[in-house]
Structures are given as C-alpha cells and as structure tokens.
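Assemble and predict.
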Amino acid sequence: KNQVEQSPQSLIILEGKNCTLQCNYTVSPFSNLRWYKQDTGRGPVSLTIMTFSENTKSNGRYTATLDADTKQSSLHITASQLSDSASYICVVSPHSGNTGKLIFGQGTTLQVKP
Amino acid sequence: DAGITQSPRHKVTETGTPVTLRCHQTENHRYMYWYRQDPGHGLRLIHYSYGVKDTDKGEVSDGYSVSRSKTEDFLLTLESATSSQTSVYFCAISRDSTYNEQFFGPGTRLTVL
C-alpha cells in the first residue's frame, strides 16, 4: 500500500534555530514529491516540489532533499521565525496517469517559540 | 489562496439534513478536488473533477456526491449528513494533473450534530 510517514509528529524549537523534518514513503513509482506548509485555519500552501531525479530544492529558508533510493525526504528550515509555526505536510504523487490522486502524510506540527 | 473561494466557511447542521459546499475558482483550471482533513489523518480525497461534468471518486467518497456544471464551480453534497462527516473540507485546483501542482482553498469547517 502506498504510504507517506512523517516524523516527528510535533516539534518545538526556539526562534533562530534550525530544524529538519523527515518524510519516508513507500510510493513507487512516483512522479514528484512536495512539501506543503499549512497555517492554522488555512489551506496548505506549496513550499517545494521535486521530481524523482532531483536531490534538493530550496525556497528561501526552506530546503527540501530527496533520496529516491532510500525513499526518504527531508525539509530543513534555517534560522526559524515565529511565522514558521505551522503544520508541514509531505505529499507524494504516484506515477499513475492523470488522476491527480496525491498521497498525503499526516504532517509535522512545528511550534517556534521566542 | 490562488483565486479559490469556498462557501460557507463554517456550517453547523443536524444529522440527516442535506448539505452543499461550494468551491469557486477564477483561475480557469481544469482539475478540481474535494478533500477532508481530520485529526490523525492526512488530507483524504473525496471526489475530483477533470472537466465540466467529468468527475471521479476518491478514497473516501461514500456519503458524498459532486457536480460540476461550469469550469469555475465544483459542488460537494452530503445527501444526509452524519456525525462522521464532521470535518474540515478543502477544495483544490490544478491546471495540469500530470504535474499535480494543486492550490488549496481556505477550507470549510462543517459540524454535524
């Protein structure tokens, strides 16, 4: 069964510190892997998207890495800010035609404290 | 929110009543999706549409129906709401399903008493 597992489930860090969120998936083959940020009470917003052939993708202070061999991805946040407090969702798109049926992880809830 | 609106944003209803949620987009994207989000679960696909009058089921479609009579509108109907359908519902759109760049709306919080 295609699955996406994220860890940790939740994380608390101090403002200015770095952190790394993990995503393991069993989806194969896959078209792309993306990371979304979801603020409380809002819809998810895309941070990065990587195809299976890409190893890393950055978006400002957010850097995503992908290891297709081990089926792992990580999202690294540098110099965290209070506004980074949110849920971060790893999403994998199976390579299964044009159905658009994404597979979502349950998310990691990040809290950045002053 | 990428030109996507959802209405209503909040709704409280009683078990057994019909409920319709509306998603409206101004992006002229071909694909539209309805998801539900519950604690302990990732976002789960209910139904999606790949064009006017073209729809298909997702993984949690039981108890839900959809309609798309115009490119810009995608309706989700709960024919007879149950407490298990209490959830936050998100609409999403994408231009090209192969690329799967999906943009999400602000969500509708539905409570079924």
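The interface with chain B takes residues 4, 31-32, 34, 41-46, 49, 89, 93, 98-107 of chain A (CB under 8 Å).
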